[in-house]
Amino acid sequence: MNPIPQIEPAELRQRLQAGELLNLIDVREDEEVAAGMIPGAKHIPMNQIPARLEEIDPDQEVIFICRSGYRSERVCEYLQQHGYDNCINMTGGMLQWWHEEE
Question: Which of 67, 79, 100, 102 has the fewest beta carbons closer than 10 A?
């Protein structure tokens, strides 16, 4: 298995501020996303990914987000095993995203 590509929250923020249209998927649970999501992100809880693969375009770069970066990296690994080669994990997750906002 190939290493999972990573993106730092600061780089993601720069790309969004530059107006890039990015595919973002937040894999946290409902109660976690209630505290806030990155604008434009789609919410697909981690345990629903296998049943909702048709919502993920295998030909486009997709950035996955969770609380700390662990679950989103597991999702990227799972998808890579199923032929999705354009998955990127946001390191540090929302914890780092919010920390850098301060």
Answer: 102
Question: Length of the chain in residues, anyone?
Answer: 102
Q: Is 57 exposed, middle or buried (0-12, 13-18, 19+ CB in 10 A)?
A: exposed
Q: Tell me what the pLDDT averaged over the chain comes to.
A: 95
**Over the stretch 50-67, which tens digit does the pLDDT of each residue have?**
999 999 999 999 999 999
Could you give the C-alpha distances from 3 to 16, 21, 38, 102, in angstroms and in order? 24, 25, 25, 31
Look at residue 70 and tell me whether its pLDDT is greater than 70.
yes
Listed by start position, the domains of the chain span 6-101
66 classed as catalytic? yes
Name the CATH topology of 6-101: Oxidized Rhodanese; domain 1 (3.40.250)
**Which is catalytic among the residues 66, 76, 79, 88?**
66
CB contact at 8 A, 93 and 10 = no
